[in-house]
User: What shape does this take?
Amino acid sequence: MSDEAEAGVLRALQAALAAEHAAVYGYGVVGGHIGGQRLAEARSAYDAHRAGRDALVREVRDLGGAPVAASAAYALPFAVTDTATAVRFAAGLEERVADVYSDLVRASSGERRGSAAAALREAAVRAVRWSGESVAFPGLAERAGSGAAAGGSASPSIPASATP
Assistant: This one.
């Protein structure tokens, strides 16, 4: 792999790691506003994102990078005050995670590409479970018609794609 390709993979890994950090934080918010069966879904998603985060930390280190750290807090794109807003927020979190894993799929190859594709699929399935809606090309904002560009953000916020 060329140095440029490896740098692209590292950038995509770091973006995925940042999204996983935000998702872990976000599910803490979600869990505080829902109950019952949806709470079990939130716990499952929280655990999945923690595992994804931990795996990405190892991958970044394996490539010689310093894993991007989680922020102490994240700005939410809208007020999460009840079950309905928590569910809408969770769907947006998963859409964002799918976006960054889509970038990682494009940047990588081999086993890493397969893992990224699996993570993309899992995020897309969770997004559908939360929102009740699907898109033809999960993780590809330009194909989904949202008009939002995929990619990382330097600010510690949950992306606006999580808004209604």
